[in-house]
Design a protein that fits this description.
This protein has 595 residues and is mainly alpha-helical. The chain has helices spanning 37-55, 58-64, 70-86, 88-124, 144-174, 181-216, 218-238, 252-265, 330-356, 362-368, 387-412, 420-452, 467-491, 497-525, 544-567; strands at 12-15, 24-27, 370-371, 459-462, 573-578, 581-586. The chain has 15 helices and six strands. The strands form three sheets. A two-stranded antiparallel ribbon has the order 1-2. Strands 3-4 form a two-stranded parallel ribbon. A two-stranded antiparallel ribbon has the order 5-6. The longest helix has 37 residues, at 88-124. It is globular and about 85 Å long.
């Protein structure tokens, strides 16, 4: 099934694409380019501001409005976060195989607005949330229908994220012609504008919107993001006459499955000796005009190479294979290998992001029991504290790019100064340090709260004591998260950009489920003999500091695992710098250049 593209009088042109034996149709580039950017970036900016503004303070909402204990609230956020970050893989598949990026974003935006409207109704309508604690002797928990309505709203948001996250950046890139210098410059500039607007949106969301939620009204604080997502949808459809549309070309996941099926069917075949392999393997030329770099046959995961062994009557006279489920090309096999060899690196990022993700859960619980006053009247909203890590990233990246990286490049002769895996590893070190500092800070806060024993349990310690751990988390993000994103995009083949963009979301999802596992394990196993568990609802009686130390310990073990797999990883391509001149070197030419 193929959805029709919006008709705007723009005819098709023939454009050769990777992985296809026939030209693929795209819209002729009468429009697109920077004419489409106000609509693309405007839609993305409003959507991000809406979704982040709605959820930046959601932990506090679950604690104060929904009356969940902190373990239950953390579980809701972590489980929902895991689903939301895994499901973009499904969205990428549907987009590539069936309906294309325009309709994927369009349908997903509507679902996202439905989710936001549902969540806005929860604080607005009394029947959809428990009564305030002041109206009853004890805070009532939400009933099944109230929890069901909350889950429905979060489910709609997950469906929206499934379509928007994997498609927003590629749809923006589609507006430029990557075969021209002007188009390539436009793409580079688009990325700069995208991440600049994203950073500004984050700062506005965690300051202004969170302040409205915390100090004015939850209804208004949720209603504003809902209005913004409606405006983003309107802006997106206004630009239909200037967009460039690329029809879906089929998903690469089908190609992956074919490789495994073909290699299994030929599992009993013997691989030829390297000296006798010429002409044995199926290695057709890439289509003319393809932007994909041809990958040579490697010996890693050699059992997959059997899928490319040519048997009798498996190749037509025109060079095409007769059955794609029995014969695959070397290019297909090597693309599968790219994913297989990245999986160990990907898995090492889960623990690191588990540490970074604490600023959205238990860091807020800490802030609620600290002195948040900034002057006699203003109180810092707990959800706004994450702006500290964002400011750290915003200050560090320009300093690194302008001053540190050029000096390191002269010494190491590697573009970027250090390798991407080294950058990821440094981020892991910062994440470990952030958890150690968080544990020390929590111990100071808890001791102060117990010593002073105020009725509300708030320690006379300024909330800015949380700044050091948030600054360290910012450095962890700057090195590890940005390093992962760049690593996936450079190490994956060019026609797998949607998978590369989705893989980091899977890291976040894995971290969410890891947090859920740790929280429930500690909640059920710690404590006893008259002592509450580490993560009991009253954090002054619990031991969140031990929870932070546990994550730090897991981070140390994970760092050793990462060093082991990173030293054995072989890059697809490395850019070396020699006397100011950049040059590309293939991995088979640089066997000594690894971690």
């Amino acid at each position: 099934m193929a959805f029709p593209l919006p008709e705007n009088g723009v005819s098709y042109e023939e454009k050769q694409t990777s992985g296809s034996d026939s030209p693929a149709k795209t819209r002729r580039r009468k429009h697109g380019g920077w004419r489409a950017m106000p609509y693309v970036l405007g839609n993305e900016t409003f959507e991000r501001l809406a979704s982040i503004g709605l959820l930046a303070n959601f932990m506090q909402f679950l604690l104060e409005v929904f009356h969940l204990d902190q373990v239950s609230a953390s579980n809701v956020l972590n489980i929902w976060g895991g689903v939301t970050n895994f499901i973009p893989l499904l969205g990428a598949f549907i987009c590539d195989a069936y309906i294309g990026r325009f309709w994927t974003i369009a349908f997903a935006s509507i679902f996202e607005m439905m989710g936001m409207l549902a969540l806005t109704m929860i604080p607005w309508l009394p029947k959809l949330h428990p009564p305030p604690c002041k109206m009853s002797p004890q805070c009532k928990k939400p009933n099944k229908s109230q929890m069901g309505f909350l889950v429905m709203g979060l489910g709609f948001l997950s469906i929206g994220s499934a379509g928007i996250r994997p498609c927003s950046i590629p749809f923006g890139v589609d507006q430029f012609d990557s075969t021209t210098d002007e188009g390539r410059k436009g793409i580079a500039s688009f990325f700069n504008w995208y991440y600049t607007s994203f950073t500004l949106v984050l700062i506005i969301a965690v300051t202004l919107v969170v302040y409205i939620q915390d100090s004015v009204s939850w209804v208004l604080g949720f209603g504003i993001p809902t209005i913004l997502i409606f405006l983003s949808i309107v802006l997106f459809f206004i630009g239909t006459k200037v967009y460039v549309y690329v029809k879906p070309q089929g998903s690469i996941f089908s190609s992956f499955i074919q490789v495994f099926v073909a290699s299994y069917k030929k599992r009993k075949l013997m691989l030829p000796d390297e000296r006798e392999s010429n002409g044995v393997f199926y290695d057709p030329l890439l289509p003319q005009g393809s932007i994909v770099k041809k990958l040579p046959l490697t010996h890693k995961y050699r059992w997959l190479n059997k899928a490319a062994i040519v048997m009798e009557d498996e190749v037509n006279t025109d060079g095409t294979c007769t059955n794609k489920w029995r014969l695959c090309s070397i290019q297909q096999i090597e693309e599968v290998k790219c994913i297989l060899k990245i999986i160990p690196i990907w898995s090492a990022g889960i623990i690191c992001f588990t540490a970074i993700g604490q600023q959205g859960t238990f860091t807020i619980s800490q802030a609620l029991k600290m002195d948040r006053h900034l002057g006699p009247k203003f109180q810092i909203p707990p959800g706004s504290l994450s702006v500290i890590s964002m400011i750290t990233v915003g200050i560090w990246l320009p300093v690194y790019d302008r001053f540190i990286m050029p000096s390191l490049t002269k010494i190491t002769r590697i573009e970027g100064g250090i390798t991407l895996l080294q950058r990821i590893g440094i981020g892991m070190v910062f994440s470990i340090l952030s958890m150690v500092v968080a544990g020390i800070t929590e111990k100071i806060r808890r001791n102060s709260a117990i010593t002073h024993s105020s009725p509300d349990g708030i320690a006379p310690v300024t909330v800015m004591w949380l700044a050091p751990q948030l600054v360290l988390m910012g450095f962890a993000e700057a090195f590890n998260i940005l390093g992962q994103i760049e690593f996936y995009n450079k190490e994956f083949p060019e026609n797998m950009s949607s998978v590369a963009n989705s893989l980091f979301s899977c890291t976040v999802a894995g971290a969410s489920y890891m947090s859920t596992l740790l929280v429930n394990l500690l909640h059920n196993t710690t404590g006893g003999h008259g002592h509450p568990d580490w993560l009991t609802n009253d954090i002054n009686e619990g031991r969140i500091d031990n929870y932070y130390y546990l994550i730090a310990g897991l981070g140390v073990l994970n760092l050793f695992y990462f060093l082991y797999v990173a030293r054995r990883y072989q890059y697809k391509t490395r850019i070396v710098v020699d006397d100011g001149i950049k040059g590309y070197a293939d991995v088979h030419e640089l066997h000594d250049m690894k971690y």
